[in-house]
Amino acid sequence: MRSPIFLILILITTLTGCKDNQAGVEVAEEVIPNESEDKLLGKINKDKLMKPVFAEWFQPAYEDYKVNTELVESYKDQLKEYEIEVFMGTWCEDSQREIPTLYKILEAADYPMEQLTIIAIDDEIENYKRSPGGEEGGRNIHHVPTIILKKNGNEVNRIIEYPVRTLEEDLQLILDGGYTPYYFAADMVHTRLIEMGLENFKADLNKLAVEFTGKTRDVYELNTYAKTIFRQGKKEEGIQVATLNTMIYPNNPNAYAGLGSRYMDMEQYEEAAKYFGKAVAMAPDDSEFKGYLEEAQAKL
């Protein structure tokens, strides 16, 4: 039988993929992430991404992308009025797809690279979506890559994990003031959680479920946000967001498996088994859900 740790780690990856320190909420004890040969952390640049292990994915994505030069030419002067701050993971496929593209677009726009800051964050459980310098603090980084456009030091808007159209078009929409990010609902939930406080948020879950039904992009949006804040020490907040996700997606087994994994992390195995059981009931042929349930039941 596979070990509990092995299964839990698989669950984390399966439920969220690539998919923040928030003011006023308790954070986990700080552990400084460590860079390795196959993972960059902290402030980085294109030169670091061109080192062999990273060039394997950076170079082909960069070379293959065809920039819409006509569109970029139309707003390149305006773009130079903005600073760009990027949070990415060299371990994340979405970052590996979008960041080479972003570099190529910015180069086509003659964008001043001194106004670009790229920060690589970690994927380890104890440092989840953190960087050694803590630059993610207060930024609500729940999906990567997150591309933030700022003017005079203030955030104007952000692209979250995927462009809604293309990166060139999304940048134009931000400059024109008419952009809504791909994963905007997680930011809205984040704001509601901060404004309401945990107890009021918990008490109003039914109202929040009505408010956010139809607004989330998919079941993974809040699964990822819940995991992120949970991993960063906001455990009860993570549980409540995962619970909200089951209310928004009552017929989706991944929502219940996401909530079960949070209870598994808290060593509340009866609750974990309850929600893994719901996932299995909805997807009886899914061997992974069955494995998670067996592991939780073995702990009872």
From TrEMBL:
Claim: Repeat is one of the keywords in the record: yes
Record flagged with keyword Transmembrane: no
Protein keywords: Repeat, TPR repeat
TPR repeats mapped onto the chain: 253-286
PROSITE patterns referenced in this protein's UniProt entry, alphabetically: PROKAR_LIPOPROTEIN, TPR, TPR_REGION
SUPFAM superfamilies: Thioredoxin-like (SSF52833), TPR-like (SSF48452)
Segment forming the signal sequence: none
Matching InterPro entries: Thioredoxin-like_sf (IPR036249), TPR-like_helical_dom_sf (IPR011990), TPR_2 (IPR013105), TPR_rpt (IPR019734)
Protein name in UniProt: Uncharacterized protein
